[in-house]
Amino acid sequence: MTHYAYLIIGGGMTAGAAAAGIREVDKTGAIGIIAAEHEPPYDRPPLSKQLWTGRKQLEAIYHELPPGVDLQTGRLAQQLDPEQKKILDDRGDLFTYDKLLLATGSTPRQLPFGKDNIIYFRTANDYRHLRRLSDTHQRFAVIGGGFIGSEIAAALALQGKQVTMIFPEKGIGSALFPADLAAYLNEYYRQKQVEVLAGTAVTGVTGSETDLTVVTNNGRSLQVHGIVAGIGVKPNTTLAEKAGLAVDNGILVNERLQTSHPHIFAAGDVANYPDTLLGVRRRVEHEDAAKSMGQTAGRVMAGADVRYDYSPMFYSDLFDLGYEAIGELDARLDTVADWQEPYQKGVIYYLQDGRIRAVLLWNVWGKVDEARQLIATGRQFTASALKGYLS
User: What is the pLDDT of residue 341?
Assistant: First the structure.
């Protein structure tokens, strides 16, 4: 049995930030990290972005952990006893703690076919696998038109690969972007030599290894060497649920990132937290949330009197286009587009009852803080009042 003052379950970006946050307050308390992956914490966004453009190398994405951190990789926490403050892992080893952070992240949703022939792109190993395939093969199918799908399709096309995107929605990023922008992205990707099959569902995958066939609902059969899927994720709440913690679309936490048990905290993808900027509960699956929540959770666990009152941003790179965003991007909201150059540079505001809920900065940089402040005003705006406001 091993005891830690601070025990962290999960080895991703949140865990690395939490260890650093603890050390800001407590320089000596023993920190343990139990990680399912066989590697130290690392940044995930470069896996589908900068690593493909050469702007970053794989070794540069790993976090340097602070002193006094005992990292135990390749282990899965299976049982949590909140009253006894105990964790049992899949090797039968027992760990005890004074404070516990659940940074268990999320797991990609999977299709009911294809088995190991589909790469559900999320980890460094997934990147290595796809990179090896792309070094020697040419034809790839990308299932999904969201974050992962759009980024991986662009990354592969930039390597000169023959890429087919397949998704049931009308346009790339349809859940986030106004319909006209999503439709423009379809054509933009086609101009970049990506075959875009919008409004299409994958109904089957046959073959094995690099001899694969993707079957669609409209009768197409695509012969490919590799398949990548990005069809969403689900939070890893099983450990928390079995322990009796409050769970609802993630582990419920308060403004100090405490769960329903005062000595247990949660942060990152798995945490459902109160967003003070928007006045709602949210669960956010982006880098800025993972790092900011992890750092705050670590500081609170170590005794700092702080609250998590931050609303995280997110970003993406799509060939020559890129964006930063803050708030709840939801295509169902009212939108006001303020283009400097249509679909190339501008700002899109998302409104509910005239109040701004989110801002999309499309090829507009350095304006996230101003956008956050604009949302915080809670004011009602007309479309004309927003013209030129941030751009």
Answer: 97
**Rounded Cα gap, residues 107 and 229, in angstroms:** 13
**Could you list the residue range(s) of the whole structural domain that residue 68 is in?**
2-107+233-301
How many helices and strands (H and E) does the chain possess?
Answer: 9, 25
Q: Please state, in angstroms and rounded to a whole number, the distance separating the CA atoms of residues 67 and 85.
A: 24
**How many structural domains does the chain have?**
3
C-alpha 272/C-alpha 266 separation (Å) is 9
Contact 223, 96 (CB under 8 A): no
pLDDT of 216:
98
Residue 391 has pLDDT above 90, yes or no: no
Write down how long the chain is: 391
What's 36's domain CATH number?
A: 3.50.50.60
- Cβ contact 143:202 at 8 Å: yes
Average pLDDT over residues 342-364: 97
- Tokens found for residue 99: 């404070």
Is residue 362 situated within a structural domain? yes
